[in-house]
Design a protein that fits this description.
This protein is 49% helix and 11% strand. It is an alpha/beta fold. α7 links the parallel β5 and β6.
């Protein structure tokens, strides 16, 4: 049986003509209430669609030098973004990057640094996937893919970019997490486990990078009408075909719905996320929050964020060794 990978699944999605809604893209033209980002070199993973694509255009319209990365440079989204940059004279460079591929990560970051003339100012770890269903039915193929994309991928990219940032003693890492990086919804597969890991990894880096002058802010979006639902159905549908009967028999109703979610009923503006990121980038270094929930509706993760911050300060904030780093992040 042919192995299902990010490349094979998403190549099929591109062939079906799945592209971002033009209405969402058009909203990036309104930058009147947002700060200028001139001089900033911003590196984005997963910039073909969704928050990454919207952000690439918005930050460029605000004056930034943007490196928009995506898998498969032959895809229509890469061509469309290049054409947009040429037509509107935006400083956007499209680079090939699969976050699960060590060599591509290193090559893309080094090329962006070369073109930027030094360290990147901002890295937005936006690429991510979801594969729904009970945890028990997630086979090792799905499990490895989820963790490799959502956890190891951002780690690869951060490790590639941080040495130059540390040498310059400035930089900003922005991972895109989720409400489900703090709150657990059953039957979401490894989505919450990977986002919990992403949050923990980046909070640790937020403390560790304080002496190096580098900030970390974890973005926690709620549900938005982006391609994440269609992409998740592709991965989930592939998993559904592989589920062995001994597992499938335990969750018949759940498995019958796997791969059929469409994100309907979600009407929030996806531009909320890149707009908030633009404001954060413009903030003075050392003043940015470690977590920012983004959604016009309920934000169930907020009390969890508050309790976590308080426990960190009460437990470790007075430590002679790490207390100053803990307080710098949470104060």
């Amino acid at each position: 049986m042919t192995q299902i990978t990010r490349r094979t699944l998403l190549a099929g999605a591109v062939a079906t003509g799945a592209v971002m809604a033009t209405g969402a893209t058009a909203q990036t033209n309104d930058t009147s209430a947002l700060p200028e980002l001139g001089g900033k070199a911003i590196f984005i993973t997963g910039a073909a669609t969704g928050f990454g694509r919207l952000g690439a255009e918005l930050y460029a319209r605000l004056g930034a030098k943007v490196f928009a990365t995506m898998r498969n440079m032959g895809r229509s989204e890469a061509t469309e973004l290049r054409e947009l940059a040429t037509r509107d004279r935006l400083d956007i460079t499209v680079l090939e990057l699969d976050v699960t591929h060590d060599g591509q990560v290193t090559e893309a970051v080094r090329e962006a640094e070369r073109l930027a003339g030094g360290a990147l100012d901002v890295v937005i770890n936006n690429a991510g996937i979801g594969i729904s269903g009970p945890v028990e039915v997630q086979d090792m193929e799905a499990t490895r893919l989820a963790f490799d994309t959502n956890v190891y991928g951002p780690h690869r990219v951060a490790r590639a970019a941080l040495p130059a940032m540390r040498a310059r003693r400035s930089g900003y890492i922005i991972p895109i997490s989720s409400q489900l990086g703090r709150v657990i919804a059953p039957f979401s597969g490894h989505y919450s486990p990977t986002k919990f890991a992403l949050e923990a990894m980046n909070e640790a880096m937020a403390y560790e990078l304080v002496p190096h002058g580098i900030d970390v802010t974890i973005i926690q979006p709620g549900g938005y009408p982006t391609n994440v639902w269609r992409n998740r159905n592709l991965y989930t549908g592939a998993l559904r075909q592989r589920i062995e009967e001994e597992y499938a028999a335990a969750y018949p109703q759940v498995i019958a719905r796997m791969g059929e979610e469409d994100g309907s009923g979600r009407s929030a503006d996806p531009m909320d996320v890149p707009r908030e990121i633009a404001r954060l980038i413009a903030m003075p270094a050392g003043t940015r929050p470690v977590r920012v929930p983004v959604h016009p509706g309920p934000k169930p993760q907020v009390p969890i964020n508050e309790v976590s911050a308080r426990v960190q300060q009460e437990w470790l904030g007075q430590s002679p060794a790490v207390g100053p780093m803990i307080r710098a992040v949470h104060d």
